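Following up on my earlier thread - several people asked me to post the actual chain instead of describing it. Fair enough. Here it is, all 81 residues.
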Amino acid sequence: ITGATTPAVKTDNTANAAALVPGANSFTESQAKSRIENAGYSNVSKLTKDDQGIWRGQAAKGGENLNVGLDYQGNIVAASK
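Reply from S.P.:
Thanks for posting it. Predicted structure:
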């Protein structure tokens, strides 16, 4: 079962939470948005999947507008805009 804290794909390597992992991403845009929202972000918008399979967009958390990314493992990374 996958969830907000469980990756969709289990790997032997521990993912680097500070870096998104490129790879074939099976999340739909709606699923990516839900994952990001379930991680505590709001106003998730402008989601697009890049050529490395990473969903990228914009969101807000703690009153700050951020750039966010979601990789195929379900890792989410945010950075100030």
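The longest helix spans residues 29-38. That should answer part of your original question.
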